[in-house]
Specification:
With 223 residues, this protein is an alpha/beta fold. It has 2 domains: 3-158, Glutaredoxin; 178-223, no CATH class. Helices cover 29% and strands 19% of the residues. It is built from 6 helices and 9 strands. The longest helix has 17 residues, at 160-176. It starts with 26 loop residues before the first strand and ends in a 6-residue tail after the last strand.
Amino acid sequence: MTHEDQGRHVAPDTPPLVIGAAAPAFSTRTTMGSRSLSDYRGRWLVFFSHPADFTPVCTSEFIAFSKSHRDFGAIGCDLLALSVDSLFSHIAWVRAIADDFNVDVPFPIAEDPSMAIAAAYGMIHSDAVDSATVRSTFVIDPNGIVRAILWYPMSIGRSVKEILRLVEALQVSDTHAVSTPEGWEKGDDIIVVPSLDLREASEQSSTGGGPWFYRTRKVEGMQ
């Protein structure tokens, strides 16, 4: 090992997670008792890592996630945070957020002192200069499948509103077998799957409602 490599964390060689892959199973302690990935089967889960407790960007994110907790719950989605910090550090941070900002963190924060979970999810790069996890977010569906992955650098906070919108879009896409356009929000029109038949495409274009390759409609039963 060279002097340059000293103190560098080397994660196990694991293939990177991709959309559509099964989320790696885990079990660990959290601020709300033990949690396993299997505990969330049947519900959506936003599983996200943060670089370290008591850091300003992470604090802003946790306040925002806490304030939106009910919105996630209303669509059947749970929140689970993780960092390599100890459970004792998590507890102290949660108390500090409550004392200093009058905000209770209503979701569990998992510890990962061995960095096994972070390595399995690719939260720590093999060339990282320390053990801090990046701001990674995994949207996991009720069947335990990774449906979306977001990566942010340590210096940039995530948009909790966008993550909520993303889960809602995935749910409507699954339920109605449709796609959603840019910036779609609940109640907006969805995209009609275009026809690949030339005659049918021509007929669709002639009836109005937009060109055959981009047509939208309302979702029945949604406001």
